[in-house]
Amino acid sequence: MSANPFAESVLIPPLDLAGDLRAPARPRGLVVFAHGSGSSRFSPRNRQVAEALVAGGMATLLFDLLTEEEARDRANVFDIDLLAERLVQTVDWAKTRPDLANLPLGLFGSSTGAAAALKAAAERPAAVAAVVSRGGRPDLADEALPRVTVPTLLIVGGDDEPVLTWNREAQQQIAGPAEMAVIPGATHLFEEPGALDEVIRLAAVWFGDHLR
Fold it and tell me: Range of 149's domain?
């Protein structure tokens, strides 16, 4: 890595998906973000989380899981298998870059992106070291959950029903260590005062503990 913090626009093969890679001088790990339905790499909430993780010593990658043409078809936005495939391709790409290959890698998924992250973790257990889900739909990962062996943190708003129920049920199916953190009074987008700050704190601790 560069001696100084840097930002780089990247194109992820084989479809040249656009991504934004940021890293501090000596990153301790790499966190790849998978945004939720209808969002993009410009998601303000994910960018806020990413900025905090970079400040805490992690490299981050936000990228678009679909091409512009694919994104016009709303069915693709909810195609978890397709999104997971793109995430796997991105993990594989990161492991080919000399400056990223040796960094422990974590996945941060939001909404439907959390299901894609869990499926990708099941497909690449040797490459993915940890998963964090923010307001996620882990239930949509269905048959992949018993194959998820990496440490997983499910962060859910206390007022986000029925997502709260779906996360509790999914937690019981995940094979590896799975913890659930409920933020009291928070809804699906964590827009309440202090809610996203708590998401950031929890994610930073989880990745700090497991990306070693």
Answer: 6-210
CATH value at residue 188: 3.40.50.1820
Residue 144 has pLDDT above 90, yes or no: yes
Q: Is residue 170 part of a domain?
A: yes
Angle between helices 195-210 and 44-55 (to 10 degrees): 50
Q: Is residue 90 part of a domain?
A: yes
1 is a domain residue: no
H/E element, 47: helix 44-55
Domain membership of residue 113 (yes or no) is: yes
pLDDT tens column, 160-179: 999 999 999 999 999 999 99
Q: How far is the C-alpha of 32 from the C-alpha of 114, rounded, in Å?
A: 11
Q: Can you tell me the distance from the alpha carbon of 170 to that of 164, in angstroms, rounded to the nearest whole number?
A: 10
Look up residue 96 and give its two tokens: 């080919």
Question: What does the alpha-carbon distance between residue 76 and residue 89 come to, in Å, rounded to a whole number?
Answer: 17
- The predicted structure's pLDDT at residue 38: 66
Candidate from 40-49, 81-90, 133-142 with smallest mean pLDDT? 40-49
| CA–CA gap between residue 202 and residue 165 (Å, rounded) | 20
